Amino acid sequence: MAKKHASNKKEDLTNAQIVITSLAAGAVAGAIAKTTIAPLDRTKINFQVNHKPYSTKKALKFLLHTLKKEGLFALWRGNSATMARIVPHAAIQFTAHEQWKKVLRVDQGGGESPGRLFLAGSLAGVTSQSLTYPLDLARARMAVTHKREYATLRQVFTKIYHTEGIRTFYKGYIPTMMGVMPYAGVSFFIYDTLKRLYKGMLYNLKIWRLTIFAKLIFTNFGYSKK
């Protein structure tokens, strides 16, 4: 009975409503998650671009040095570029996931096979990553360079375009996609499996609460380009 109730609730939503709610929930979850961990994200990028061996002690030293020399808000430097990427990325990813499930007929009779669930997740990851890939490069550049060099997102794109060429925006695209496909596939497979397992017990809970919580978790721990 619980499963039937949940199924009827889903059928009541039009495709346009599903798209809108997926876009909104994904965008909000992505923004909250990435803003929360922005200082840690900047620390990670600092180690990556400077090829320094990571240690907790060195990470804390970097955070304290940045706080002392540049101020509290410097820890969130590059977060505007992160928001410009993660908001559309998360929104597109979860919306694409719902639409790929429709194309692959995952929610129709006999369609919920592990292979189709994995494929829908993989394609959603590739779709969102492909459309927002240049923004990830801009985010990394702003996080590790001085503010005078890259003060705005527009400056990042303009300077890279004129000095390094348009191909730079998609540098490392193939290796990134090779990582995105299995990661997104497994993540969404687990996401859909957990939803089905708990749907019967939690059908009386507002669906938007469950959805935004799950999306917040997967956005926070989801794949990011190294």
From TrEMBL:
<dbReference type="Pfam" id="PF00153">
    <property type="entry name" value="Mito_carr"/>
</dbReference>
<dbReference type="InterPro" id="IPR018108">
    <property type="entry name" value="MCP_transmembrane"/>
</dbReference>
<dbReference type="InterPro" id="IPR002067">
    <property type="entry name" value="MCP"/>
</dbReference>
<dbReference type="GO" id="GO:0016020">
    <property type="term" value="C:membrane"/>
</dbReference>
<keyword id="KW-0813">Transport</keyword>
<dbReference type="GO" id="GO:0055085">
    <property type="term" value="P:transmembrane transport"/>
</dbReference>
<feature type="repeat" description="Solcar">
    <location>
        <begin position="112"/>
        <end position="197"/>
    </location>
</feature>
<keyword id="KW-0812">Transmembrane</keyword>
<protein>
    <recommendedName>
        <fullName>Solute carrier family 25 member 42</fullName>
    </recommendedName>
</protein>
<keyword id="KW-1133">Transmembrane helix</keyword>
<feature type="transmembrane region" description="Helical">
    <location>
        <begin position="203"/>
        <end position="223"/>
    </location>
</feature>
<feature type="repeat" description="Solcar">
    <location>
        <begin position="17"/>
        <end position="103"/>
    </location>
</feature>
<comment type="similarity">
    <text>Belongs to the mitochondrial carrier (TC 2.A.29) family.</text>
</comment>
<dbReference type="InterPro" id="IPR023395">
    <property type="entry name" value="MCP_dom_sf"/>
</dbReference>
<keyword id="KW-0677">Repeat</keyword>
<feature type="transmembrane region" description="Helical">
    <location>
        <begin position="172"/>
        <end position="191"/>
    </location>
</feature>
<keyword id="KW-0472">Membrane</keyword>
